[in-house]
Prior knowledge:
- This protein has two domains: 3-20 and 137-222, Orthogonal Bundle (Endonuclease Iii, domain 2), CATH 1.10.1670.10; 30-130, Hypothetical protein, domain 2 (Endonuclease III, domain 1), CATH 1.10.340.30.
- It is elongated.
- It is 63% helix and 0% strand.
- The longest helix has 18 residues, at 83-100.
- The chain is mostly helical and 223 residues long.
Amino acid sequence: MRRADKAARILSTLEQLYPAPAIPLQHADPFTLLVAVVLSAQTTDKKVNQVTPRLFARAATPEDMARLPVSTIHELIREVGLAPQKARALQGLSQVLLERHGGRVPDRFESLVELPGVGRKTANVVLSQAFDQPALAVDTHIQRLAARWGLSSGSSPEQTERDLCRLFPRERWNSAHLQMIYFGREHCPALRHDLSRCPICSWAASKRRQRAEQPVARALRLR
């Protein structure tokens, strides 16, 4: 099957499973979304949603966040992974927002990635979910699925992003990002996955992937 045809069928399946995917991070505006996405690196969305209410009660704007000592921010977010680095990043990006952007989250990719703690994935999530701009953020779920389905041979998130953006219609990038995340969590785990029983992997996984994961699938079926 051609990659383009496979991509179209995958999108159709994802649309049936998740017709209206909602971003799993709780937020109220672009700034609180930006903060939540920064906190989500190497941390579950569930844990972020447990931490942010306490943080936003103290600092829900760049002005308030910039005024908090890094030690206070760290104490408020200490349950998330990489808390010390993230505390410094949150105070730093808040200061940059005040100094360069009038306290507003910019809606340009180049400006977002200049903020402390903000990389390509975070910038794309903010652009797509806060400003409704077409962007396809690649996280570990999407990186894994794109390779498993033979949609990308890229060894980096940047290459996977380029491959998926070529295959998926521009108007589907924002929803496809969320749909693939939900699918990866609910149907397509990284380990101990029986490809033959997966709604997409059963027909979309590359032959190489099927051969590599066949022993795992056989063991699961014998249980």
